[in-house]
Amino acid sequence: MKLSQFGQQLTSDSGIVNLMADLGNALNVNPNLLFLGGGNPAKVDEFELLVSQLLSEIAQDPQALHKLVGVYQSPQGAEDFIQQLSHYFQQHCAWQVADKNIAITNGSQSAFFILINMLAGQAADATQHKHFLFPLMPEYLGYSDQGVADDYFVGAKPQIEEIGPDLFKYKIDFDNLHIDDKVAAICVSRPTNPTGNMITDDELNQLSDLAKQHNIPLIIDCAYGEPFPGIVYQSSNYQWQDHHILVLSLSKLGLPATRTGIVVAHPDLIQRVVKVNTIMSLANGNLGPELMTRMLAQGKVKSICKDMLLPFYQRKRDVLMNALRNELQGLPYRIHQPEGAFFLWLWLKDLPISSADLYQRLKQQGVLVMDGSPFFFALDDAWQHKQECLRLSYCQSDEVIESAAKIIGQEVKALYSKQA
């Protein structure tokens, strides 16, 4: 069988496919693995109890049940869901958006496939090949294989600020950030997957100004951030603007299996997203929108984020931070300042082997982490730092987190001892 260019591009090995294969193996096939990999949210019992109650309400209402399983959504998405979302954004975020600014997709991954291939690649007039610019690498590896051809992404190397004895922070190097007419859009995740970095309000405003000057959109992936699930450990003040495209998700709220993405953008772009999504998917699934509509209508979303999820993940973060500090004491490590999401980004300075090899060694020891190198996908240079980082999720039990940290510490100590 001979594949098309599209077929070859999307069936080759990729970081996101490997990530999901590892996640599926750990969660469904080999649950004895100490799992600090993947992006699956934690099991939050209080949230799942709420979901159970909502499902019971639906099951006991024949009309609601039929709407859930027996009716296609409209192309833009379920009308009542979109109305609840626009009201929430207006009331709680002070965004000047309406129903026409919102489209629903089958997950934010699908939304990015649409956006990347709508904006980047060969221009419609065939005069240029356009790119997405990632101004702060490393970035979410799930973007990296979404283009239907090669050469869709360019990235910028960060400045590194070392903080205290064992922390650091990536910052945008605006002096070396180059934007030309080949850049189709600027894209960031906030908080950043994989590092837990929160691009500052000032950095975001500068990116917004640059995007506006060049008449291109600023795309903000809010999968872990505001307005939901709100896994952000410091205050921020985001202001919506017409040239912004926000991509939200219900996954990290605790509903990853519902595959529900939300795009907030200018109405002209929304209509284009709707057309592509309809061709790709016909219609969106109903479960996520139905559950979220009820949570919004009952006024539960803000308290879910602030009172249920944020304290849960903040405590888990501290468990992993303390465990790593205990196990890596005396070694040349730093942890990215944890400002959001549910990952720690571990930098092992002058690591004697590559992070990819360390990932394999830890896997053999029964610990699954994420090799950091694929997250630098849009940087072509041979920067040693790209081979020195791991992404660690803290969504498991305290016992799993502490046991995994112990094995990581033992393996890393052995490597540095051999080097010495």
TrEMBL record:
GO molecular function, one term: valine-pyruvate transaminase activity
Aminotransferase class I/classII large domain: residues covered: 63-407
GO terms of biological process kind: alpha-amino acid metabolic process
UniProt entry tagged with the keyword Membrane: no
Listed NCBIfam families: PRK09440.1-2 (NF006964), PRK09440.1-5 (NF006967)
UniProt KW keywords: Aminotransferase, Pyridoxal phosphate, Pyruvate, Transferase
Pfam families listed in its UniProt record: Aminotran_1_2
GO-annotated cellular components: cytosol
Cofactor: pyridoxal 5'-phosphate
Domain of life where this protein originates: Bacteria
CDD domains documented for this protein: AAT_like (cd00609)
Entry protein name: Valine--pyruvate transaminase
